[in-house]
């Protein structure tokens, strides 16, 4: 596999799972390209039973790019932002990034953390765990590295649909955690928090989820909490211009961001009660696609290009002028492209009986001013979906390239200037 991707390894890690499938029955299907489940129960004399394919799947920490960008979406996720503690600066930030990188490497390999391990994920394999690290706008002034702050990290403009909670936005440091097991993901979250020690304090933290691998009869694009297939037009690594659109080139500026990317993070609340009052046809018109299979209203399958000029017998456009699918099309936005890699969230029911649920929107691009910003500006001017969503928090983070063997994430920034 090309070194621009983080290889997934289905080999067995140091943690072993004594397959519980023997006691509960087997679910059929393949996950991450490997199929089959261990059948020995924990009471079996075969104490060395192999991990299931789900538990054994491993994403490599070291690589050209950080993991968690092009890695397949996981079923569990945590997003957490930190602010450096008062008095902490570049030295403390470098030590923290060194700790976090060492922890990420060990946990992503399915290893324990030794005496400091909480044993939360003791019996599990790496389960496609990824940890991804980024720096916010304020990080550079806190560490005396203002001259190395990328212009692409300038604050996002205000948008009409924003109702942002500043306490749950931005931050000096950002960590994205994903895994296909909830305990593995939580274990990594606790490790990251513990590693922060006295150097950084949690600013905000959010939890998300997606459909579990193997839950459908065949691989499918994920659905969001509105029931819509979400992510059909994502750029793919096989696209000729993928790296150019998503990753900072080696010749880019600043030099320490080579092979990195920029993450826009938005907590988007879905007004589900209002959405559910719409008829099925009305929902389809808002999106511009069929809820049933994600196909454009002009016909075909999910991946069929919409015919934006097609009209019906009444002379009206089949895909409404303000349909979400029309407005977000790259050819309607000067070619703007970004990889959307979100998690859904549900934080309970409010006192008014309305669910606090929606999307932890995360998108990746080489330059947010050419990716997220032009698309969001256009959505702001007339997207039919805007009546059913509310942007409640926001962050923009510079995510440097991957760490090589013996290196830590951000080393080129924190030690070279």
UniProtKB/TrEMBL annotation:
<keyword id="KW-0349">Heme</keyword>
<dbReference type="InterPro" id="IPR048328">
    <property type="entry name" value="Dyp_perox_C"/>
</dbReference>
<dbReference type="Pfam" id="PF20628">
    <property type="entry name" value="Dyp_perox_C"/>
</dbReference>
<protein>
    <recommendedName>
        <fullName>Deferrochelatase</fullName>
        <ecNumber>1.11.1.-</ecNumber>
    </recommendedName>
</protein>
<dbReference type="InterPro" id="IPR006314">
    <property type="entry name" value="Dyp_peroxidase"/>
</dbReference>
<keyword id="KW-0575">Peroxidase</keyword>
<dbReference type="InterPro" id="IPR011008">
    <property type="entry name" value="Dimeric_a/b-barrel"/>
</dbReference>
<feature type="domain" description="Dyp-type peroxidase N-terminal">
    <location>
        <begin position="66"/>
        <end position="210"/>
    </location>
</feature>
<keyword id="KW-0479">Metal-binding</keyword>
<dbReference type="Pfam" id="PF04261">
    <property type="entry name" value="Dyp_perox_N"/>
</dbReference>
<dbReference type="InterPro" id="IPR006313">
    <property type="entry name" value="EfeB/EfeN"/>
</dbReference>
<keyword id="KW-0408">Iron</keyword>
<keyword id="KW-0732">Signal</keyword>
<feature type="region of interest" description="Disordered">
    <location>
        <begin position="287"/>
        <end position="310"/>
    </location>
</feature>
<keyword id="KW-0456">Lyase</keyword>
<dbReference type="InterPro" id="IPR048327">
    <property type="entry name" value="Dyp_perox_N"/>
</dbReference>
<comment type="function">
    <text>Involved in the recovery of exogenous heme iron. Extracts iron from heme while preserving the protoporphyrin ring intact.</text>
</comment>
<keyword id="KW-0560">Oxidoreductase</keyword>
<feature type="domain" description="Dyp-type peroxidase C-terminal">
    <location>
        <begin position="221"/>
        <end position="402"/>
    </location>
</feature>
<comment type="similarity">
    <text>Belongs to the DyP-type peroxidase family.</text>
</comment>
<dbReference type="InterPro" id="IPR006311">
    <property type="entry name" value="TAT_signal"/>
</dbReference>
